[in-house]
Amino acid sequence: MFKGFGKISDLKAYFLRSFMKHWAVRISVLILIILIARQPDIELDHQGKIISYKGLVQPTDYRGVTNTSCTADRLTEVKHPYIENTIPAIAKAFELGANTVHLNIHVTADKQIAVFHDWTLDCRTNGEGVTSEQSMEYLKTLDAGYGYRIGEEEVYPFRGKGVGLIPSLDEVLAHFPQHAFLLNMKTAGPEAIEVLGSYLNKLSSEQRSRLSFIGMQSIAEAINEEFPAQMTYSKEVGKRCLVKYIFIGWSRYYPGSCSNTTLVIPEQFGRILWGWPEQFAARAQQNGSEVYLYQKSQPYSKDSDFREQGIGLFTGDMTGLGESQVPSQ
């Protein structure tokens, strides 16, 4: 049937050898391209930094938590005397070695910016209603520690200890004029974004350089449109960055979506990134970004502390970190 082939089996063997040969060539070429194009080792510019989640938080059971869950009544123990998102907690976090403190913010009814976590007041305070619908003056009258409770026990360790402790962003920046903050704006909508933009406009470029933002994509886009140099991060940015990097990170190309931003990497994704941890961190630093491993919902773990390899730590357990006696950076 085919000249040179005595049997059908000979024909099959020929095509099989040809197929394997071509694939061997293709794989060899691909390996050669990877070796030639591989990013040469880059030296780290600096070691990883520390972001302290909400200043200091208490050990909390986050299992099953959603965006609408109350976490103030899910404490597992009281580890320190501080209430999250308050000036005393922020001060202690910096004292323990944090380079940056993460804070939640809301635009209030009187167009100020309050530092507070929840969309409503009912969970953590003795007040009621939507946080952004209240005035800053009213928020100052509330007990910021009223709703904290250890599990199902009727034990409220901070009740009466948080009166007047909900701060404005103005107060925080005035109290810590040289420190950096990662802000998560909880209030959405055009009016709130306009208030935030107006607030940033009143700050000097040096003051703005100490602020970065994490959270909703709409807020990140609005900030970047008016302040292109402002560092912002959202889940959408993170997905675009990581998907591209996973596929082409072996090459010299570094995605623009991974540049000039604060990259917050969930722990389970780190292991699949090219060059993790040190070379990934070095590439990010070379492109104006800082990388942090997300550890907020668990006790501090030395096993996933890669600061010496350039990966920062986003932690909700600054006291645990201090107790571990890890050398300060």
Topology:
Layout: H1 8-37, E1 50-53, H2 87-95, E2 100-107, E3 113-115, H3 136-139, H4 169-175, E4 180-185, H5 190-202, H6 205-209, E5 211-215, H7 217-226, E6 231-234, H8 235-248, E7 262-266, H9 267-270, H10 278-286, E8 290-295, E9 312-315, H11 318-323
Parallel strand pairs: 1-2, 1-9, 2-4, 4-5, 5-6, 7-8, 8-9
Antiparallel strand pairs: 2-3
Organism: Pseudoalteromonas luteoviolacea DSM 6061
Protein name: GP-PDE domain-containing protein
Domain GP-PDE: 68-326
3D shape: globular
Radius of gyration: 25 Å
What is the residue-averaged pLDDT? 88
Label the CATH architecture. Answer: Alpha-Beta Barrel
CATH class division: Alpha Beta
Q: Briefly note the CATH topology name.
A: TIM Barrel
| Distance from first to last alpha carbon | 76 Å
Number of strands: 9
Helix content: 25-40%
Question: Which stretches are poorly predicted, pLDDT < 50 over at least 5 residues?
Answer: 1-5
Order of helical and strand elements? HEHEEHHEHHEHEHEHHEEH
Beta-strand level of the residues, as a percent range?
5-15%
* Major sheet: 9 strands, mixed
Name the CATH superfamily classification.
Answer: Phosphatidylinositol (PI) phosphodiesterase
Number of helices: 11
Number of domains: 1
Which class best fits the helix and strand makeup? alpha/beta
GO molecular function: phosphoric diester hydrolase activity
InterPro entries: GP_PDE_dom, PLC-like_Pdiesterase_TIM-brl
Organism: Pseudoalteromonas luteoviolacea DSM 6061
Protein name: GP-PDE domain-containing protein
Structure description:
A hairpin with a 5-residue loop joins strand 2 and strand 3. The N terminus is likely disordered. Strands 1, 2, 3, 4, 5, 6, 7, 8 and 9 form a nine-stranded mixed beta sheet that branches. With 329 residues, the chain is an alpha/beta fold. It is globular and about 85 Å long. The relative contact order is 0.14. The protein has one domain: TIM Barrel (Alpha-Beta Barrel), CATH 3.20.20.190. The chain contains eleven helices and nine strands.
